[in-house]
Amino acid sequence: MSPLIDESLAKKIAQFAEPETTGEWPAGRLNAVREAGLFRWGMPVEFGGLVVETPQMLAGYIELSRLCLTTAFILTQRDAACHRLANSPNALIRQTLLPEHCSGQSLATVGISHLSTSRQHWSRPSVAATETPDGYEITGEAPWVTGGRHADLLVTGATLENGEQILAAVPTKRTGVVVGPALKLMALNESYTGSVMLDRVQISREEIVLGPMPHVMKVGATGGTGSFTTTAVAIGAATRTLQEFECESTSRPELADVIQQLTDQLSMLRTDLMTAASTSMAADQLKTTAEDLRLRANSLVTRTAQAYVCSAKGAGFVQGHPAERYLRQSMFFQVWSCPPVVTQARLSELKRSPAS
Question: Would you place residue 345 in the very low, low, confident or very high pLDDT band (cuts 50, 70, 90)?
Fold first, then answer.
C-alpha cells in the first residue's frame, strides 16, 4: 500500500458508504483524507504543505482511486486548483490562500476545461474578460466544474478581446457567481459536476493567478490534460475492477487466463508510469509519453470492466452490481481531461475490424 495511504486511512474510508450508492457528496471520506494530510500533498512547505516525490504522489492516487474513485476525482480537481495557486507569480495569492487550503479549512475546485479541451470549437470564448480600473470583469459559463456547490474557491479562466487570457481565484460566494445544478452523468454523479455561470463578476488584480497572456494554460502547467495523474487514477480504477473480477473466478478456472493477461498488462502499465515519472524528459517527449500512457490506461480500464461484465453474465447487467458500476465508471476516462490525440487514437482502435 502506498506510504501516503496507509491501512488506517483505508479503513476510515471504508467506514463510509459508497458514494454512488448514497448519491451524496462524499463528505465523510473527504474529511478522512483531509485529516490524514492528503490536502498537503506536493504543496509548498512554508504554507503547511508536504514534499512528495512524483512517483509517490502517483502511487497515492492509484491507491485512493482503488479505494474510492469519486474521492480521488474530487481531490484531483482540488489539487489542480491549488497547484495553480502554488505556481502563481502572485505572491499575495500564495500567502493569503495556500495556508487555509493546505490545512483543508477551505476547498478549492477548478473550472478551466473551456481553455483546454471543452468548447475549443466555439467562435466566441466561453468566458469573456473585460479590463476595469481595478482589475477585470468576467462573464460567461465555466463548464465541468466539480463540487461547485461545496467549494469555497473557483480557479477559472477568461479570454480578453485581444485573445489574451487570465486565470483568476474567484470566491464562490462572490456576487455574480451562480453554481448550476449538477449534470446527470453516466457515473460519478456524487461529484456534483456541472456548470458555473459568471455574470459580470468583478476580479481584482490581487486575485489574478496568471496572465493576461496568450495560451495561459500552457504556462506553469503541472501536467495538463492526459497527464500522469489522470493515468494513475485510471490505473487505480482498473485495479479495483480486476480485484472484484478475480473474486468471480474463484470457482471458474476458465477465467484464469483472461485475468492473468489483464493483471500482466496492469503491472506493466504501472511500472511504465512510475519509470516515466522518475525520468527527466524534454517537453515534447514528456507530452508524447503522457499521451501514450493515458491511451493504454483508457483501453485497459475499459477492457477490464467489460471482461468483468462478461464473466458475471446476467447478474453483471443488473443495476447495483459492481460490474455494472465499474463499466459505467470506466467510460469516465474516455471523456475526462482527454487530449484530442488520445481521443483520436482510441477512436482508431474502436473502428478496427476484429481479428478473424
Answer: confident
Question: Could you read off the pLDDT of 87-120 as tens digits, one per residue?
Answer: 999 999 999 999 999 999 999 999 998 887 555 4
Span 316-341, pLDDT tens digits: 899 989 999 999 999 999 999 888 88
Element (H, E) at 216: none
Is 197 in contact with 180 (CB distance < 8 Å)?
A: yes
Q: CA-CA distances (angstroms) from residue 188 to 195, 217, 219, 256, 276?
A: 15, 26, 30, 30, 29
**pLDDT reported for residue 221:** 54
Contacting residues for 206 by C-beta, under 8 A, at least 6 apart: 90, 92, 93, 135
**Per-residue H/E/C for the chain:** CCCCCCHHHHHHHHCCCCHHHHCCCCHHHHHHHHHCCHHHECCCHHHCCECCCHHHHHHHHHHHHHHCHHHHHHHHHHHHHHHHHHCCCCHHHHHHHHHHHHCCCCCEEEECHHHCCCCCCCCCCCEEEEEECCEEEEEEEEEEEECCCCCCEEEEEEECCCCCEEEEEEECCCCCEEECCCCCCCCCHHHCEEEEEEEEEEEEHHHEEEEEECCHHHCCCCCCCCCHHHHHHHHHHHHHHHHHHHHHCCCCHHHHHHHHHHHHHHHHHHHHHHHHHCCCCCHHHHHHHHHHHHHHHHHHHHHHHHHHHHHHHHHHHCCCCHHHHHHHHHHHCCCCCCCHHHHHHHHHHHHCCCCC
For 193-235, write each residue's pLDDT tens digit: 999 999 999 999 999 999 999 988 877 655 444 489 999 999 9
Global pTM value: 0.94
Per residue in 284-322, pLDDT (tens digit) is: 898 899 999 999 999 999 999 999 999 999 988 999 899
In the chain, the amino acid numbered 330 is S
Q: Which residue, chain included where needed, has cell 478551466?
A: 112
Strands 165-171 and 127-132: unpaired
